[in-house]
Amino acid sequence: QVTLVESGGGLVQAGGSLRLSCTASGASGRTFSTYIMGWFRQTPGKEREIVAAMGWSASTIYYADSVKGRSAILRDNDKATVYLWMNDLEPEDTAVYYCAAATSALSPRAPNEYNYWGQGTQVTVSS
Q1: How many whole angstroms separate alpha carbon 31 and alpha carbon 89?
Q2: 21 CB burial (10 A radius; 0-12, 13-18, 19+)
Q3: What's the confidence (pLDDT) of residue 107?
Q4: Contact status, residue 95 vs residue 40, Cβ threshold 8 Å
Q5: pLDDT digit string, tens, across residues 34-90
Q6: Whether the Cβ atoms of residue 80 and residue 87 lie closer than 8 Å to each other
Q7: Which of 29, 32, 56, 115 could form an SS bridge with 80, CB 3.0 to 4.6 Å?
Protein backbone atom coordinates (compact mmCIF):
# COMPACT_ATOMS: atom_id res chain seq x y z
CA GLN A 1 0.00 0.00 0.00
CA VAL A 2 1.37 3.39 -1.04
CA THR A 3 0.46 6.48 0.93
CA LEU A 4 0.62 9.86 -0.78
CA VAL A 5 0.58 13.10 1.17
CA GLU A 6 0.18 16.44 -0.58
CA SER A 7 1.17 19.82 0.76
CA GLY A 8 1.56 23.37 -0.46
CA GLY A 9 -1.99 24.40 -1.21
CA GLY A 10 -3.59 27.56 0.05
CA LEU A 11 -4.89 30.96 -0.97
CA VAL A 12 -3.03 32.71 -3.77
CA GLN A 13 -3.74 35.91 -5.64
CA ALA A 14 -4.28 35.78 -9.36
CA GLY A 15 -0.99 36.04 -11.17
CA GLY A 16 0.85 34.41 -8.30
CA SER A 17 2.67 31.12 -8.06
CA LEU A 18 2.68 28.07 -5.89
CA ARG A 19 4.43 24.77 -5.47
CA LEU A 20 2.63 21.62 -4.50
CA SER A 21 4.51 18.66 -3.09
CA CYS A 22 3.53 15.03 -2.81
CA THR A 23 5.57 12.57 -0.82
CA ALA A 24 5.09 8.84 -1.11
CA SER A 25 5.68 6.18 1.49
CA GLY A 26 5.20 2.44 1.67
CA ALA A 27 6.21 1.55 -1.86
CA SER A 28 6.04 -2.15 -0.94
CA GLY A 29 9.34 -3.08 -2.47
CA ARG A 30 8.63 -1.18 -5.66
CA THR A 31 10.85 1.85 -5.83
CA PHE A 32 9.21 5.22 -6.19
CA SER A 33 11.00 5.84 -9.46
CA THR A 34 9.01 3.15 -11.23
CA TYR A 35 5.64 4.76 -10.53
CA ILE A 36 3.93 7.05 -12.95
CA MET A 37 3.02 10.16 -10.96
CA GLY A 38 0.19 12.49 -11.77
CA TRP A 39 -1.40 15.66 -10.50
CA PHE A 40 -5.15 16.02 -10.91
CA ARG A 41 -7.64 18.63 -9.82
CA GLN A 42 -11.34 18.68 -9.15
CA THR A 43 -13.99 21.32 -8.51
CA PRO A 44 -17.47 20.66 -7.14
CA GLY A 45 -19.77 19.10 -9.68
CA LYS A 46 -17.01 18.39 -12.18
CA GLU A 47 -14.98 15.34 -12.99
CA ARG A 48 -11.42 15.02 -11.80
CA GLU A 49 -9.09 16.22 -14.53
CA ILE A 50 -5.43 15.76 -15.27
CA VAL A 51 -3.07 18.66 -14.68
CA ALA A 52 0.28 16.98 -15.30
CA ALA A 53 1.82 13.54 -15.29
CA MET A 54 5.34 12.21 -15.37
CA GLY A 55 6.84 8.82 -15.96
CA TRP A 56 10.14 7.70 -14.57
CA SER A 57 12.05 10.18 -16.70
CA ALA A 58 11.61 13.71 -18.00
CA SER A 59 11.05 12.29 -21.47
CA THR A 60 7.57 11.20 -20.48
CA ILE A 61 5.80 14.32 -19.26
CA TYR A 62 2.27 15.42 -20.04
CA TYR A 63 0.57 18.75 -19.32
CA ALA A 64 -3.05 19.66 -19.74
CA ASP A 65 -3.58 22.41 -22.28
CA SER A 66 -5.05 24.62 -19.56
CA VAL A 67 -1.74 24.74 -17.67
CA LYS A 68 0.79 24.17 -20.41
CA GLY A 69 3.49 26.83 -20.45
CA ARG A 70 2.90 27.94 -16.89
CA SER A 71 3.34 24.70 -14.97
CA ALA A 72 6.12 22.26 -14.34
CA ILE A 73 6.14 18.78 -12.86
CA LEU A 74 9.30 17.41 -11.36
CA ARG A 75 10.13 14.34 -9.34
CA ASP A 76 12.89 13.68 -6.86
CA ASN A 77 13.12 9.91 -6.66
CA ASP A 78 15.61 10.00 -3.80
CA LYS A 79 13.02 11.84 -1.72
CA ALA A 80 10.07 9.91 -3.14
CA THR A 81 8.49 13.26 -3.90
CA VAL A 82 6.82 14.81 -6.91
CA TYR A 83 6.30 18.54 -7.27
CA LEU A 84 3.98 20.71 -9.27
CA TRP A 85 4.87 24.34 -9.87
CA MET A 86 2.20 26.63 -11.22
CA ASN A 87 2.73 30.22 -12.31
CA ASP A 88 0.38 32.96 -13.51
CA LEU A 89 -2.41 31.44 -11.51
CA GLU A 90 -5.97 32.20 -12.53
CA PRO A 91 -9.21 31.95 -10.57
CA GLU A 92 -10.06 29.04 -12.86
CA ASP A 93 -7.20 27.12 -11.26
CA THR A 94 -9.12 27.01 -7.99
CA ALA A 95 -9.68 23.36 -7.13
CA VAL A 96 -8.68 20.53 -4.87
CA TYR A 97 -5.42 19.17 -6.22
CA TYR A 98 -4.67 15.48 -5.90
CA CYS A 99 -1.49 13.54 -6.31
CA ALA A 100 -1.75 10.03 -7.73
CA ALA A 101 0.54 7.10 -8.47
CA ALA A 102 0.18 4.39 -11.08
CA THR A 103 2.10 1.16 -11.43
CA SER A 104 1.44 1.32 -15.15
CA ALA A 105 -0.77 3.43 -17.36
CA LEU A 106 -1.64 3.21 -21.02
CA SER A 107 -3.15 6.66 -20.69
CA PRO A 108 -1.56 8.69 -17.87
CA ARG A 109 -4.26 11.35 -18.35
CA ALA A 110 -7.01 9.02 -17.17
CA PRO A 111 -7.78 9.03 -13.43
CA ASN A 112 -8.87 5.41 -13.49
CA GLU A 113 -5.34 4.37 -14.48
CA TYR A 114 -4.01 5.36 -11.08
CA ASN A 115 -3.79 2.96 -8.17
CA TYR A 116 -3.11 5.34 -5.29
CA TRP A 117 -4.38 8.79 -4.38
CA GLY A 118 -3.54 11.44 -1.85
CA GLN A 119 -6.14 13.17 0.27
CA GLY A 120 -6.00 16.35 -1.78
CA THR A 121 -4.95 19.92 -1.04
CA GLN A 122 -7.11 22.96 -1.67
CA VAL A 123 -5.83 25.69 -3.94
CA THR A 124 -7.84 28.90 -4.07
CA VAL A 125 -6.92 31.68 -6.46
CA SER A 126 -8.48 35.04 -5.69
CA SER A 127 -9.11 37.61 -8.39
Answers
A1: 33
A2: middle
A3: 86
A4: no
A5: 899 999 999 999 999 999 999 977 778 999 999 999 999 999 999 999 999 999 999
A6: no
A7: 32
